[in-house]
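::Encoded backbone::
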Amino acid sequence: MKKQILYYILSFMMLISIIGITSCNQNGSSKSGALLSSAAEKVYVAPGEQDEFYAFLSGGYSGNLTVYGLPSGRMFKEIPVFSQFPTSGYGYSEETRPMLNTSHGPVPWDDLHHPDISQTNGELDGRWIFVNGNNTPRIARVSLSTFETEEIIEIPNSAGNHSSSFITENTEYVVAGTRFSVPVPQRDMEISEYKGNFKGALTFISVGPEHGNLEIKFQILMPGFNYDLSHPGRGKSHGWFFFTTYNTEEANSLMEVNSSQNDKDFIAAINWKKIEEYVNNGGGTMMPANYAHNVYDEDKHSATSTMINEVLTVNPADVPGAVFFLPTPKSPHGCDVDPSGQYIIGAGKLSADLTVHSFDKMIAAIDAGKFDGDAYGIPILKFEEVLAGTVKSGGLGPLHTEFDAEGNAYTTFFISSEVVKWKIGTWEVVDRKPTFYSVGHLMIPGGNSRKPFGKYVVAMNKITKDRYLPTGPEMEHSAQIYDISGEKMELLYDFPTHGEPHYAAGCPADLLRPNSKKFYRLDENNHPFATKTAADARVERDGKDVHIYMTTIRSHFTPDNIEGIKVGDRVYFHVTNHEQDFDVPHGFAVLGANTSEILVMPGQTKTIVWEPKYVGVWPFYCTDFCSALHQEMQGYVRVSPANASIELSWSLGE
């Protein structure tokens, strides 16, 4: 009996202890206990399991696009876009070198910003992702089946291609807006003559509905302001596009002072449907231009570059009712449109408040002629006539806004280093969480569409400081993942990013996973130098050009012994990977090559050029560990003097 009483007493004390621990956790006075789900559990993806979301983060000055999983924060891939990438040979191989061609010649780098996933009816469809090159103005289309860059088009009359690369809700257009206004056409003139003489080009690039082919449809030549960011109308505002502007002063020196004088700058509202109709009816002016259009052919595993010498331009004065200015305080940066298409948010980076414009009020003001003058003939709508509301006491230095599916908006504040949650319609701040440190962009999966998926917000910070182990003067930029499924945001996890992310796009993994390419079918390889059987492997000479038709399969090259190469020859190794299995690439490198190695996917052909400078016997090998006999996957090339009479010969196993 005594033992039974003691058992009840101990059980009661244990229950009281559990209640106490739980109470402490609810009051925030103790770290998570064993009975509560922890932040670590929410981001943990068990071995062999996969993440719920893909996240595509721009690499900024890396020139490339990085792919992460959410909620784990694991980096899966770096997709080369605007920068040479020795890991795979992108930009080095003969097949991909044309992708980096421009009107300035080959440019092996850029500053990649603002990924945007293709949409149908305003919802993510997972076909492509578009990104912009900021320095040498370009737009790229990346396949979300192969995770490879398929097309890059250069943008003429542009500089600092920043208010890009956002798409309309049916992917009719991807838009590229210039940050820096320039003389159009370019010419020699005094910089001090900027005001009234420079132009800002807003470029609408049509996207082919089936294959995504890019073509510049028209450029709107706007006043010489700086066009910072943009987003499309959606739902009721479909057919419009909105761009933030700053430097409406048209200053050209000491910009931090001289371009911040006006109390309000503008959001430019563009009725692209009206301009499209004008252009389709023969409107616009064709002007000389010079820009590159680079396309990768998946069937031939090769890219081509075409130079184009004209572009169609539109003067907004020639299309009345197509362009309007919405006054917006102060030096606005972010320009974001809520899922309904009703509200346009302008984040004035020198303002403590957020300005929210109403699309319905804008249309009513246009119809009623509620204007407050004009700028270069473009009507300026009265501020109070288009204002839907103001988010007060948001923070300091607002930049970007994304949305969940519950009527909430989330805005980053750079100076006060926080993400602020507020209600659409009431403009009430309902939560705020610090970031570490100085947050720039943020991303909610689908948060830039009519159907946000919510659940997580990723904050991408500009400063890292003490978040990770030090790595010398330079640190990778930090990012934080927050759980937004409840009333209050919860910081879950820190993870490092690559380069400098300027925005991101996310989508459910189930949208992309079923269509992800596993390998290229060898029988569909139409590369002109493909070698589809080992029996077809050979070496051919054409003057000083030597073409080696080579195959590779675990664990040998065919051929693997080559003789008859001479100093001064230009040797093309055309390597075809005969594997027909997922995740079995082969690499190829040869000693003395002045390019990178190449990584050849199953069923693919790639070419590396080698110009031997010295007599000798030089090895080549597979750079990707492919089998237990990977180390044996090698070969030799004999190089003889330029005047030698050695005939070409090749072999395997002889």
